[in-house]
Specification:
Elements: E1 4-8, H1 16-28, E2 32-34, H2 54-64, E3 67-73, H3 81-90, H4 98-104, E4 108-114, H5 126-135, E5 138-145, H6 154-167
Parallel strand pairs: 1-2, 1-3, 3-4, 4-5
Helix pairs in contact: 2-4
Bound molecules: flavin mononucleotide.
């Protein structure tokens, strides 16, 4: 069976994206890494941040998993800042962590988003799709979710079921 991991990039470790992420994780038994609990600094051209949590994390991911699910809230029509910082740091894998970068090739990517709007604006997935393409990853699918009264509505659960079928 495919081994997958969920990367949660929300500013709220117990927020809406976490609710969805934990629901998905329980259904498919994928571990969740909460970026908010990690020290991952912004991209640095001098790589002075190379000893933060990014390198051990990305190495663990490429060595143990086939599929990465990026779970992000929609903040100002795009991915969260925490998630974007993670993507910026993938640039380290094109330079000082090249071997790790090569291992991303052939891995799969999927995306979970959560917003207050039920419809995502056109282009939301472009950075994920293009990054996957650039890195030689396979973009599998995505699902957009929202929360109502602190819970996942049935209509969203149906979307999540479809998402899970597509990634398995
Ligand atoms: C800074 C900020 C910007 C937001 N921008 C959007 C937006 O552009 N579109 C949208 O649908 N929801 C937007 N929202 C609402 C969140 O996407 C939504 O409440 C989401 O489920 C929050 O997930 P979280 O609890 O993991 O942060 C925004 C929320 C915040 C805090």
């Amino acid at each position: 069976m495919k081994k997958g991991i969920i990367i949660l990039g929300s500013s709220n470790s117990n927020g809406n994206t976490q609710k969805v992420t934990s629901y998905v994780s329980k259904l498919i038994n994928y571990p969740v890494i909460d970026l908010k609990q990690k020290k991952i600094l912004e991209f640095d051209y001098e790589f002075n941040n190379r000893h933060d949590d990014f390198h051990p994390l990305i190495i663990t991911i490429v060595e143990n998993y086939d599929l990465i699910i990026f779970a992000t809230p929609v903040y100002w029509y795009t991915m969260s800042g925490i998630m974007k910082t993670f993507f910026d740091r993938i640039s380290d894998c094109l330079t000082i962590e090249e071997e790790t970068g090569r291992k991303l090739k052939g891995m799969e990517m999927a995306v979970i988003s959560s917003g207050s709007d039920k419809i995502l604006k056109k282009g939301f997935h472009m950075p994920f799709l293009e990054s996957a393409k650039y890195l030689g990853m396979d973009y599998v699918t995505d699902v957009h979710c929202w929360i109502e009264n602190e819970t996942i509505p049935d209509v969203v659960k149906i979307k999540i079921d479809k998402f899970i079928k597509a990634i398995m």
